[in-house]
Amino acid sequence: MCGIIGVTGDEASCELLLAGLELLEYRGYDSAGIAATDRSADPATSVVWRERAAEHAGSIDHLRGRAGSAPASIGAAVGHTRWATHGPPTEVNAHPHLDCTGRIAVVHNGIIENYRDLGAGLAVRGHLLVSATDTEVLAHLAEEQVAAGATLAEAVALCLGSLRGDFALAMIHAAEPEVVVVARRTSPLIVGVTATTGIVCSDVAAALATTRQLFALDDDQVAEVRPGSVVVRDRTGARVEPEPVAVSWSVQRALKGGYPDFMSKEMHEQPRAVGDTLLGRVQADGTTEIEELVLGDDELRRVRRVVFAACGTSYHAGLVGRQAVERWARVVADAEVSSELRYREPVLDEGTLVVAISQSGETVDSLHAMREARRRGARVVALTNVVDSVMAREADGVLYTRAGPEIGVASTKSHLAQLVMVEVFALHLARVGGRLDQGAVVSVAGDLLDLPVALEDALDRRATYEAVGRRFAACENFYFLGRRAGLPVALEGALKLKELAYVRAEAYPAGEMKHGPISLIEPGAVVVVVATRTPLWEKVMANVEEMRARGAAVVAVADAGDEETARLVDAVLEVPHVAEICSPVVNVVPLQVLAYTIARARGNDVDRPRNLAKVVTVE
Ligand code: M6R
After folding, report:
1. pLDDT (tens digit per residue) in 401-420
2. Mean pLDDT score of the chain, rounded to an integer?
3. How far is the CA of 416 from the centre of ligand 1 (A)?
4. 382 CA from centroid of ligand 1 (Å)
5. For the domain bounded by 3-247, which CATH number is listed?
6. Which of 2, 201, 311, 582 is catalytic?
7. CATH of domain 461-619
8. Closest to 105 (Cα-Cα) out of 62, 52, 30, 65
9. Is ligand 1 within 6 A of the CB of residue 311?
10. Which of 51, 218, 463, 495 has fewest C-beta within 10 Å?
11. Starting from the edge strand earliest in sequence, which strands make up the sheet with 3-9, in order?
12. Is the CB of 410 under 6 A from ligand 1?
């Protein structure tokens, strides 16, 4: 969480920083701040210029209004957009933080776990810390090293050994007005250098206006970035030659493109995201090929168990993956929330394949679950949307979704791409393991390849989903029910409604209701049920009857034209019929629109729901 950016050289300007911060804002928007050195000031005595604002989503505009007071010739600058961890989202806690002299400024993403001990030591040594953050200690620790004669890069390197936690940081110092120093451990940090400029940031999107030749810093490396050059050193101080790669993403794909918000745009892009993810991986004749998976057929045949590890929406994709792997490949499969898996002392051995699912490829719990699995001897694969993300780089193999940049905090197109990718993987595993006969493989491949068209059909029905959303927009208690492939859809529908509309929404296996939760059902409750035609449809509808008998209004995700289901419920969200195991890809769409509509009706910002950030880099 939090986005950081730094720039040095000819292009260093408040506008470049602020434009970058806008692209990083999905990582947190509690406050924002910028700081800069002045090339024309006396390096021996000058201080850094700084502005901060804690105006929630309006912080960047606020800073733009104050940019006029920035030095006319900026040497180096850093910026930050914050998701508050330590200390409330106030201006005093907003980054950049300064040292006692006001000559060093730092921005930081992550958590310095031992900041209390470090802060206590600094206080004893006479430093005055003014914020409640874990970050501020970094500026003061660097101050001590600089006072002892270190350059800024040396100071940062010397400090790293005393830090516990996960972090990416960028610092500037008035004494070296054209230098930005960055370091990282676990949290991502991207660096790019042109002939006249250097840029550092949390996410490639913020660098693309400057350069496409970028590299990711590795754990415990320190980079000293100057206009036109960069020196990278590892934890031993040895020089490392970075290898920039050309990034193909376009900035345009990270803009709204005429839609009122990113979520609308990203929902609209879902057929393409799914189509692109399938491209070249599955053929109509049943051939499957996943180049970046790396694990060969023999290795896959040795897999005795697959564990999907993920958080939030990505976990729901893991639940679908579990069903697909068991159904098609007949391999034991589990899905687990990463933050539980990593601390549970799980039994994972060389026969286990852990598939860590993460849109961002940065989620700290999933990254650590992956590391824990590797320590225990399992093979690990990262299923992610971000090429060369931290998880992609650490895994044995990768399953890339091709949803393109997703900016809205609520996962939409990336989730559909995850769903289809876990299914492609399950089919591949089944095919190489010889667990499905050729006819079945061809049939599943056909089902998958039909999905982009089915999604177009579902999205064409958006107005009808919105009408249902408006009808129930004032309700406060929602329950989402499903069985088998319908359960992950119900879980995802409830999560979307909670995070966007701030409405209580609980999801259960439909068969679980009478084991307790049914006590909550009374007039005024809304039950959203996944009731497309599957072998379990009758059981689902029996559960629907139980809900209606207790006064709940029932909204059903139902097959288009299924009049029988429509007669038994209060409202329907019609979807085109697809094979059951592929159905989550389509059935989740009306629930996204439902949550979107209710959130908008309540006046909420769908792209920036309260208290959330797109990328969760803290535990
Ligand atoms: O980047 P990840 O997929 O690892 O993120 C995991 C969750 O934070 C994420 O799926 C979250 O639940 C969704 N953005 C909610 O819509």
Report:
1. 999 889 899 999 999 999 99
2. 95
3. 13
4. 14
5. 3.60.20.10
6. 2
7. 3.40.50.10490
8. 52
9. yes
10. 463
11. 49-53, 31-38, 74-82, 3-9, 197-201, 190-193, 213-216, 245-246
12. yes
